[in-house]
Amino acid sequence: MNRAVKLILAAALVLLLSGCYDYSEPDEKAWVLAMGLDKGRQNKLTVTAVIAVPKNIAGGGGGQPASGGGGAGGNFFTISMEAPTLLSTLELLDSVVDRRVDLSHTKWFVFSRELAEQGIAGYFAPISRFYQFRRSSYIVVCQERAEDFLAKGVPKLEDNVGKYFELMQRGWRYTEFIPFDSFHQFYLKSESPGVEPVAMLASLNRKAPVFESNSPKPKGWYYAGRIPRRGGGPVEVMGGAVFRKGKMVGILNGDQVGVQKMFFDTFRRTIVDVPDPKHPGRYIIVDVKPRQKPEVEVQIVDGYPQISVDLKLEGDIISIQSGENYTTPDRLHIVEQAVERILLKDINDTVAKSQELETDFLGFGLHAKKLFRTWPEWEEYRWDEKYPGAQIAVNVDYKVRRVGLVHEMAPLR
Amino acid sequence: MMSWPKAMLKYLLYQKPKSIPSVYQSGIEDKLEEAAPQPSGSGGKEPGRKPEAKEHGKPTDGTGGKKPRKRVARQRNKTGSPVREKFVGKVAENQSIDEILQNKVKLVYDLEENRRVLAKIFRVPQNKDAVLRSLTIGTDPPVKALLVFIDGITNSQVQNLAVLQPLMLISGLFDRSMDEQPGANGGTAFYKDLFDRVKEALVPANQVSTADNYARIVDDVLNGNSALLIDGFNQAILLETKGWQYRSVGTPQVEAVIRGPQEGFTEQIRVNTSLIRKIIHLPSLVTEFIKVGGASPMQCAVMYLDDLANPDLVHEVKRRLESIQADYTQVTGLMEQLIEDAPFALVPQVLATERPDRVAANLLEGHVAIVVDGSPFVMVVPATFFSLMQSPEDAYVRWPFGSFARLIRYAGLFLALLLPAHYVAIVAYHQEFIPTDLLLAMTGSREKVPFPSIVEVLIMELSFELIREAGVRIPGTVGTTLGIVGALILGQAAVAANIVSPILIIVVAVTALGSFSIPNYTFSLSIRVLRFIYIFLASVLGLLGIMVGFFVHVGLMVSLKSFGVPFIAPAAPVTRKNQDYFMRGAEWQQEIRPDYLDPLKRRRQPRISRGWTGPAGRKGDSGPQ
Q: What is the CATH number of domain A269-413?
């Protein structure tokens, strides 16, 4: 053995120093799919962990498919523990769960509304430093205690509750009711002046549905915990929780979340029921998609911002209940104006709400920022104080692109 | 002993480049420095070290202060061995025969003496293969002669019709007709002497030469020729009578293609060279025979295009072959190991192929082919990484499909090399990479498996290697058994027994498919071995280990040379690339020969090779008027 070989061996040994020696099999870890935080009963917090039971999900080694259902002895179980902080629960959990608890597949961080209204910045901001933590997970605010929400939220369609969480959240792509802000956006928005985050709002189904009155209401009028329904899974996700300075200050209903997404260009599509201008009580149903990014102009006049927004949207006619022939080019504008009218109402409601809450969750501050040359100047301006006094004018431009599969429809006789 | 920092400095500090006699001599830069007189006293200890005296391919460590490794070769030849003492007479006899051959002892005039010496050399009468046939040449007066040949490797029909019949029967006829010719002044005037006359007129064999020493006769006779010795002459006539049994030309066994020639090389060197020459009809195609070691002169042929191949490359190939001193080099695989640049590297450094069309295509690029007698594989040098990953079929199908096949093959290479390692690394260290659904499925299926993932992987990979090795060695008649047993081990049974998790079966199967997609068998072997190194690295260091291993691996490959050509040639070092190194370009784009070969002619076809695309046919005539 000559010197060269010895040197190579020595170099190979040096390589071993850089290893992290955390070899662990996946079946030696307990995969936490969601964490819940409540106000503590005996300590500062009650932390709930949803831990997957892989052998039930995968159907064991034999290969037979997993049995449906779940609940007790099912595809996951929850543990709630009293702890001073979120991460110290990881230690406590290891004394109950035989496998090492791992957060790297956590999908949801669920805060109870009670805790959120007291302020959650102190809980979620520090965990972004932790390596197991994924910034692609989501912040969810639930109307009741998070431990109940997670323990009872057994999905109907999925075996894997983690997939259920992911798919629920992925609804932001095809419905306007679910906000887009992942933990990463949520964190950035909380940290930056001039914009505030919106978290997903979720709730367990109530025991008995609440039906208030049968007057016509827009479909996005509801939010989680208030959806009038019977049947379905225990969990509902709709609307958003508005935060200011890490504290929850209000609730957005489904339509308002849609408007918030339009302003951030994360709005993909929605269906709007438009009252037929010629046939009261009948609806024209259209599809709405963004045509361009929203154009936001901010001016500062007399120390207060003046904001004008141009929203350009487009879409198809899905259905015309009355059978009135709006589909000729010279009559399309009737539909377009009706859609613009109803969208504008939603938008104005939302803008008014944001000013009422004194919370710029629509992100106008991001557009105002460019008016200031330096960061101290921008901070000096104190956007959050000036925003409630801002004048905001929104212009909506909707174009019908396609009128659907029926041509020159005649009303039913 | 502390001179290794000095040796390291050599690489760190700028050194003025020295002129290099031939770029194809690999490691010549180091050798030049060694050859230069060394300043310290320790270097002068070995005055006999000359660069050309070194064995090629054997890395001589360039550390000047190192003691010359003195191999104490015991002189056992003379005394000491009981066997040699017992048969001392036989040893002496063998030595005398070797001396006759080595000293190139000349023939004598006396036929009986020549016969006695040849009988001694060929160990007649014990050796029944060697035949010493006495005959009389039917001239006037008759002359005694001796025909020497080896039975079985000569064509007896040729011998009968073209040698014995003319000598014994027709020679007399011819004799008379010559005499009758007026003005010819008899036969003796037309030819110098009887020997000349026999050679010129009496043996109608197609190749005839003369020899004046025993060594030459022995060489030729061992190659299937016949030697004719005539009484009274100290020369012999060597007649071409070769004729032995060999496998006929068949389809290639290892490198099968669908579209393309279905001919493969055989074990007969002359057939192999003719298969190449059959494709390249060029007078500049040169076949040089090189005597390698103690083998026969027709053992090894070097083929190249004289007007194309770089003469430095040809010279280097010949230099390496001529310098080989080895016992048994009848197979390409053995010869390859003696001429390759880096014997400790895991990758093959010559391209061994059994397809004449592939050799021809390479010769036309400026490569050099080495044909070895007794082996159906021909070596093409220099070889690069990209040539090892190519299949002749890439060129025979249209270029999009050829390129696609290559992409698939490179994907297969990476899968075969890295997939099991990645499985181990990700499962054991980087579970956050895995989609949650898959992770839970994997975790669930592993619940009852008692081993860690690394053991699982090793079990499956080793059993796969076992099946593969057994599959090669298994006799054909029981071959079907292997499939059944292999499918049981690698299939559902291992999963059902909770030895391995089901997903691993997929990993092993994909790895196997990937390694079978590598077209070069030797290269595939190296990937098989390296896979285990990567698995080990992954199990110790995770993806970091794979990364470090890959870095070292690529570094080693880049530093490798095959006959002076860097192994990853057109890519590193970056040189001018043609349209056929990674992807396969269209046929009309293949305009230049590989830059790293530095051929005498660079351009292989004009810029417009499809003349009909130009206005009115740029190249050809305007057609029928």
A: 3.30.300.210
